[in-house]
Amino acid sequence: xxxxxxxxxxxxxxxxxxxxxxxxxxxxxxxxxxxxxxxxxxxxxxxxxxxxxxxxxxxxxxxxxxxxxxxxxxxxxxxxxxxxxxxxxxxxxxxxxxxxxxxxxxxxxxxxxxxxxxxxxxxxxxxxxxxxxxxxxxxxxxxxxxxxxxxxxxxxxxxxxxxxxxxxxxxxxxxxxxxxxxxxxxxxxxxxxxxxxxxxxxxxxxxx
Length: 208
What we know:
2 domains, elongated, alpha/beta, Rossmann fold, Arc Repressor Mutant, subunit A, six-stranded parallel beta sheet
């Protein structure tokens, strides 16, 4: 059973998501809170596996919640109405393993929770599509990477696995591996984290 804690300052969101998740046989909503402090207190006693977290709460600056819960070693799924590239990248870099937009279908919320609990990452398809579209207006050294490579890199930076990238872009996992290798070679990177860091420094990814 996956134990979930919801942290959101809107009662209708907490109640609605709780009702939706109660239909899932393998998910148990163990508590809900409206502030980061209240959420941390509940997390300390309820020991949830996954935190479904609103990105911006009234008792803290944006992204403070991600940092606070990430420091507790919890699996974090950001659940927000904010979809800018900067928000997505800052949340992922801060420790979130999933990023969902409010209004996402119930099945998508449950899928995100399951994948994060399994140690994987999850990015809302709408967010993934937006990141891919963003390669049409890249910044910095645009000639270094092809449009497809920039699209793959942005999804790598958002925490997606090769399999998830392949599904998002409707290409084979082998093709994704080919693009990732090409990105490493062009950037002079040895691994995914280094590639993201080098790309950000060269203006190929949104900065914080």
